[in-house]
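seq:
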Amino acid sequence: MSPNEKLTSFLMADQAPAFDPGFIAGLEERMARDRLLSRLWQLAVLAIAIGAVCFGLAMASGPQVLATAFSGMDGVIETPGLLLAAIIVAAGVYLPRILPRALIR
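struct:
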């Protein structure tokens, strides 16, 4: 059957096409995945840009300023549990703000 014949038969039909929940669910899943990937790419570009700016500022200020700024961090870096706890708390605070509400539920 040619495309024109299909279109003609569709337009001449008395009933509406059948409702296909599987197709709709698949389409919504694909749209949600595309939105998620788009958002992740945006956040990745933003993180790289912020990292580059911070790295540039750190290199411009010189190594003595960095050594002074991080001199009190020896105990934090040596304690992996404290660093892990900080990451978990930061993720709990910032992930709901970054991710759309549909992904959190």
